[in-house]
Amino acid sequence: MAEKYNNPKIYDRLWKYGSVQKPTIWSLWKILKDFEGKRNLELGAGDCPRIPVKGGYFLDSSREAIKKLEAIGGIATVGDIINLPFADNFFDLVAGFEVLEHIENDEKAFSEIARVLKPSGFFIFAVPLGQKFFSEFDSAAGHKRRYEVAGLKELLSKNGFQILKYRAPSFYIKIFNKLYSPLIVWFLRNREVKNSLEGFTVPKIFFNLFYQILSFFERTGAPKWKIGTKGLLEYKEKWVVMFCQKEDIIASP
């Protein structure tokens, strides 16, 4: 099932019917707004970018997402995260939210991200944690894995990244996820039985309303960042966002 729902054609259908959401609706805008005017890249943003869009670089497997991002000032490219079409030491920031768990060769993906980042450049990303929690939702969503903290920390270190800070999702987004995850599993199962997922349509208002509700829960009660790696190996949440810096000078923006 994972291969089927990692198909770019599926995402073309999904992104065709919604509007590109403003990055300002997410809690991470408090950090990412400081990168306006910098050379930034977001991987797999779809119609839900987090970095400043105008002048920002985007790489996605979906041509529909690319067209929409270009229409509002993004520099967007269809491409593959394990073979990024950019020069070495090119970006000030690379972002990727709920992307790396979809990549079969994630070690190559981390290596490519490090390659295109400038020395002292920043990397911010979010991934699910705990392989023991791998569920029907993960399978339906096309996840290859859920990460273990120790392995993730080692993978970052291997590619020259230092973890500056990390945080969990808000309490409210965890509740929301519990409510909508079973619905997504049901929806994908239903479409698979009918063998008609690639032909479905969704009203534009549905996508926009969904993102407004999701972003409200995501912003509400967003937890504080934990500095450095203190307590990371004891971290028990099922999801994490990390803000890292490529080796050289380690300093917060």
From TrEMBL:
This protein's UniProt keywords: Transferase
Gene3D superfamilies, sorted: Vaccinia Virus protein VP39
GO molecular function terms attached to this record: S-adenosylmethionine-dependent methyltransferase activity
SUPFAM superfamilies linked: S-adenosyl-L-methionine-dependent methyltransferases
InterPro entries, per database record: Erg6_SMT_methyltransf, Methyltransf_11, SAM-dependent_MTases_sf
Pfam families: Methyltransf_11
Methyltransferase type domain span: 60-125
Protein name (record): Methyltransferase type 11 domain-containing protein
